[in-house]
Amino acid sequence: MWGDYQLHGWSWMLFGGIHMLFFWLLLGVLIVALVNWLRRSNDNDDDNDKQGSQGSRDALDILDQRLARGEIDLDTYRKLKQEVRRR
């Protein structure tokens, strides 16, 4: 009876260490995943800001082209340019 208990005690100690190792590995993976997720979230926010400035740059390019083709006059160009820069 007692010998059987001690056998299970030793085996549990060996597997308990492995369980602890898996626990710490899982915790580390979760922390790394959280940091990557937060970093990706901040990168997306920066990309949205860049797209906003890129959109206004594209609008200014279109205005320049329309002025060059003679589709709009200089006064209209200036008004539209101010409007684009406000956004």
What does this structure look like?
There is one protein chain. The protein is mostly helical. It has one domain (24-86). 93% of the residues lie in helices and 0% in strands. It has helices at 2-69, 74-86. α1 (2-69) packs antiparallel against α2.
Notable characteristics:
single chain; 87 residues; mainly alpha; 2 helices; 0% strand
The count of β-strands is 0
Q: What helical percentage do the residues reach?
A: over 70%
Sheet having the most strands? none
Overall, the morphology is rod-shaped
- The end-to-end distance, rounded to whole angstroms, is 82 Å
Measured by DSSP, the beta-strand proportion falls in under 5%
Low-pLDDT segments: none
Integer count of domains: 1
Number of helices: 2
Whole-number radius of gyration? 32 Å
* Mean pLDDT level: 79
Global structural class: mainly alpha
Order of helices and strands: HH
Task: Set down the secondary structure blueprint.
Elements: H1 2-69, H2 74-86
Short description:
With 87 residues, the chain is mainly α. It has helices spanning 2-69, 74-86.
